[in-house]
Amino acid sequence: MSSWLVAAPWLSARTIHAYYFVLRYGERGLMRVAMIRVLLLMTAAAVAVVAVNVAAADEAIVIDGGTLIDVGRPELTGPATIIIEQGRIRAVGPAGELEWPAGARIIDARGSYVMPGIADMHNHLRDGLFRQGGDQAGVLRNLLSWGITTTFNPGVPVEEYAALRSAIAADPAAYPQTFLIRGVFTTKGGWGNGFTPETPAEARAIVLQLKAAGSDGVKLMYDDMRWATTRPFPVMDRAVAAAIIDEAHKQGMLAFAHAPIQELAKQVLEDGIDCLLHGIISEPIDAEFIELMKRNNACYISTLTMFQTNAGYAEWADRLKAFDFEKRLDSNALAIFHKAPNGTARLDNTDWTVERLPVLRLNLFTANSAGIPVVIGTDTGIPGVLPGIAAQLEMVMHVEAGLTPEDVLKAATSNPALMFGRAGQFGTLAPGAQADLLILNADPRRNIENIRRIRHVIRAGRVVR
């Protein structure tokens, strides 16, 4: 039973409806590979979230005989041996050809599949239920048991940022590798709560404060929310947005945007945005959009799961239940979604969104086909987007949109490393990389749903499941 998905049958539909408006958003994004080798990374390791035999982080581990899956290194094929020491991959070679460290823990992986841990690069560390607050550190810890060894929260509330940073720093081995952005930029009366600079100079000053606080980038809410409401919100002044992006780049920081409307996304792309935190849902993406994305080497995070919840919480809860083959989700908590109304008095345009879900999926396929770096992200914490399982379903929905399983595995492993300028350091089975691995009982290349069939999770050289 998952500790974060708590049964709450006492919540009335009215209470759910009230919480919905408060919780229904917060998002963030990606980056330009050429600009990002300077960013700070928080190293995390693992925590035992289920009853397992936990290896010490400094214990040598030999994973022997498993079939390796690393879409960034297709030369890694066949049964192989991986040697892990001091939290990193020391050596990879054909089974039987490497010398094993004395006293190493041996994992017999014959018949299993070994791949890098997966990343969810748009995750607000909330439980996805209809309530405010929550234990962000607890949600973060539990992601490991779902196979998520890297995550990105692009918009931690300012009042919670320091405490979350401190919790991770106190025991970094207890969490996935975690990237955080402190707060978001919006405008007065605009979507989301955050910084509301009125001039470019004010915006630049705030970026400097974020840099000093160790934020892993900046996030702009550049959306009038027409896809969710018939009464659009004000949008940030473009000169202010351009100043935020420019100052972030001057400070060696990445700039992410919540901008699912194509015309608005083009504006921030023209100004240099590094990553879009949501897919374009307004209309099919055009040649100009693709050219701008490629010019910036910007990444594309679709958050299909978040948009899909607009089709109805009851239907989505049924899909979650059917996908949860380990029966980890609380059925009483899932039942809450059958009471939940779609939309709110303010967010009253969900039918428009549902009509354009095929456009969202088509745009993902088009972006991937054009060579734009696609990255897995869920917008976890939005009602219905539940921690861990949402990332697995996001991968399935990417295949349903027309991507190959290999494309999706790349979007969940090596592309997240590229977006933060850390190629070869995680998201790979290469020697020297962080030992963040999954051992699966079935091949996700044959059926992406096999990403659920987890035998072991290893985070920074520690077996956590």
What does this structure look like?
The protein is of the alpha/beta class and 465 residues long. It has a single domain, classed as TIM Barrel (Alpha-Beta Barrel), CATH 3.20.20.140. It is 31% helix and 15% strand. It contains 15 helices and 15 strands. It has helices spanning 13-23, 136-143, 158-170, 200-212, 238-250, 262-270, 287-296, 304-308, 313-323, 331-336, 350-355, 357-369, 389-400, 405-412, 414-419, and strands at 61-68, 79-85, 88-94, 105-108, 113-116, 118-120, 148-156, 177-182, 218-221, 255-258, 275-276, 299-300, 437-440, 454-459, 462-463. The strands form three sheets. Strands 1, 2, 3, 4, 5, 13, 14 and 15 form an eight-stranded mixed sheet that branches. A four-stranded parallel sheet has the order 9-10-11-12. A three-stranded parallel sheet has the order 6-7-8. α6 (262-270) links the parallel β10 (255-258) and β11 (275-276). α4 runs parallel beside α5. The longest helix is centred in the middle third of the chain and has 13 residues, at 158-170. The two termini are 15 Å apart. The model is unreliable at 1-54 (pLDDT under 50).
